[in-house]
Amino acid sequence: ILSFIIDELLISRGYLSFLSMPLHVKLHSLYNASHAIFGKGIIKNKIKNAFAWLNGEMHWVEFGLKKPLVASFIALLFPLLFNLNGMIYVILLSSIITGIAAYALGCRWRGEIMFSALLTTTWLSSIFAIKTFSYIFQTNHSILVPFSSIVALSGIFLFLFVIVAIPACLFSWLPGYLIHLARERRDYMLLLKECDL
């Protein structure tokens, strides 16, 4: 009789835990907010994990150049179609499109997506530099003024490229990360595939 009772107890415990699987403990929203802000650095850890690639904790794997090149050329069509001006504005918007295009083409590594964003930033910076240099050469009749301006503008464009490169990489990575996160919530088999987004 004792073994029968123990068996029934074990079976009922297992069954009750199975029944309570979809249930979640709901805490008061004020407690949740205060715990998220003040509790054990949760926000700090989330931000740290999200920007870990800036610290060099990114898996740089060997990848082909075809997909990042195609994604960067797709993003180059964006400012041409909408006739946008403003270097930084165009680069940041194009980097978002680069990230979406790279993810759609099958890039599943951060290195691939960020490399395509760097390619897009390089192409667009070069286009803006060539447009600026051609404008300077057309407006000045002296030969020395355009050459001295080229040296100054080259330094300015390199400085802007360095400043814009990190946000461009971030903006290109975020769309792929969000799309992949939404897909993982619908299909758990994606968790088994190789990906560091």
List the helices and strands and how they pair.
Layout: H1 2-19, H2 29-38, H3 42-50, H4 66-82, H5 87-105, H6 110-139, H7 144-186
Helix pairs in contact: 4-5, 4-6, 5-6, 5-7, 6-7
What does this structure look like?
- This protein is mainly α.
- The chain folds into two domains: about 1-50, no CATH class; about 60-190, no CATH class.
- The protein is built from seven helices and no strands.
- Helix 4 crosses helix 5 (about 85-105), helix 5 (about 85-105) packs antiparallel against helix 6 (about 110-140) and helix 5 runs parallel beside helix 7.
- It starts with a helix and ends in an 11-residue tail after the last helix.
Oligomer: single chain
List unreliable stretches of 5+ residues: none
Shape: elongated
| Continuous helix count | 7
The profile of the biggest β sheet is:
none
**Structural class by helix and strand composition:** mainly alpha
Mean pLDDT: 71
